[in-house]
Structure formats: C-alpha cells, structure tokens
Write a structure and sequence with these properties.
Radius of gyration: 17 Å
Helix content: 40-55%
CATH class: Alpha Beta
Number of strands: 5
CATH architecture: 3-Layer(aba) Sandwich
CATH superfamily: Glucose-6-phosphate isomerase like protein, domain 1
Strand content: 5-15%
Largest sheet: 5 strands, parallel
C-alpha cells in the first residue's frame, strides 16, 4: 500500500492549494452571497438550491444545514433543494424533458424576493441555466457556485462564486467549504447571536446593490 501514499498526499496538497487561492479571491463574494440570502430571509423570502449529481448532493446539504441546524439551535430557516422530490423530477423529466426539471419546480414555488442558488461545476448544465433564466424573469435574485471559467452561468447570475480550479473534485470540495461558511454566517445573522470569535454579524445589503453595482445582468440570459 505504500505506493499509494504519494498520490494521496498529492490529492490533499492539491485541495489545499485550491482553497488557499479561494481564500485570496473569494471572501468578499462569499460575504455578498451571505448578505443576499440574509436580506431575502429577513424579508420573508427563501433560499432555493439546485444542481446535478454531486451538485445535487451539495444543494441538499445546504438546505439541510438551514432547515435543520448548522452549529446552534435556533428557528428553522426557509430553504429548499429542488433535487429531492423523485416524483416531481421523473414526471417533469418524462413530460417536459430533463432540461426543465428545475425551472418547472421554481415556477411553482418561487416568488420575487427569494434567492435561487445554482450549483454547477462546469457552469453549462442546461437545466441549471434554464432555471436561472426563469428566476431572473420572476424577479428572483440569483447566485452561482461554479468552477474556474464559470461557463455560461457566470454571465447570467447576479453573483458568481467561481472556484479557481478546472478539476471537478477540487471544485466540489470547495463548494462544500463555501456552503459551510454561508451556513454559519446566515445562521448567526438570523438567530441574532454573535459568532464564537465575536466577529460582528454582517449587515444585510440589498440584492439591488449586488446585482447592479457588482454583477450587471446580461439581457440575453441562456
């Protein structure tokens, strides 16, 4: 088994390197994403999360951290993953095509003031792009978790968190880290409690500021 050790060490070091780059590039974006979610929830909105494959698991992970708990006991927070209802997924896929499995559900439960969080390592998944396009038409703020290039998704969301890597495993590992960071910030803000290190809770910002000033929308959404 000793011949496996160099490869194991390489994988660990590669993951660390990506997270170190993320630490240098993404903190402000993560803070803005958290504040978009907090602003929505404080105004009666909810978080709607979706993605395919490993990103579906991440969507469910994020929703579960908020509906259940992350680190502290508090009121349940409004979040839902569009990847958990097998009857909806299979019926929509069968009747309308797989590209609509998220947009059809979003149409049913989304409303202005919600936040849609799309997860796609490539940024090019047709069903994810379709849901983002519909979200914008419905007046729903949009956030993307994606990989290095961001794909088509980058230009079609209000805020794009692109992990600086082209490796799907490394991107997904960083998505999990981002989800944990967002869960902690949102939980602290919505419960009204300070963090363990007494770092001040971030003040909410409007979705309009993030959308207009930092990430202007492209009129030709995919």
């Amino acid at each position: 088994m000793s011949e496996l050790l160099p490869e194991i060490v390489r994988e660990i070091q590669e993951s660390i390197a990506v997270k170190e780059k993320l630490a240098g590039e993404a903190p402000e974006l993560i803070a803005d994403a958290a504040q978009m979610i907090i602003t929505s929830m404080q105004s009666g909105g909810k978080l709607i999360v979706f993605g395919n494959g490993g990103s579906a698991a991440d969507a469910q992970h994020f929703s579960a951290e908020l509906v259940g708990r992350y680190r502290q006991d508090r009121k349940a927070l409004p979040a839902i993953a569009l990847t958990t209802d097998s009857s909806a997924l299979t019926s929509i896929g069968n009747d309308y095509g797989f590209d609509t499995v998220f947009s059809r559900q979003l149409e049913a439960i989304g409303k202005p003031g919600d936040v849609a969080l799309a997860i796609s390592t490539s940024g090019n998944s047709p069903n994810v792009l379709g849901a983002v396009s519909l979200a914008r038409k419905m007046g729903i703020a949009t956030i993307a978790l994606t990989g290095n290039s961001g794909g088509k998704l980058r230009s079609h969301v209000d805020l794009c968190l692109a992990v600086p890597s082209d490796s799907t495993p490394r991107i997904q590992e960083s998505h999990s880290l981002i989800i944990h960071i967002l869960s902690g910030i949102v939980e602290n803000a919505m419960s009204g409690e300070s963090r363990v290190d007494d770092t001040p809770i971030l003040e909410p910002v409007s979705n309009d500021r993030v959308s207009k000033d930092r990430f202007p929308k492209d009129k030709d959404a995919a």
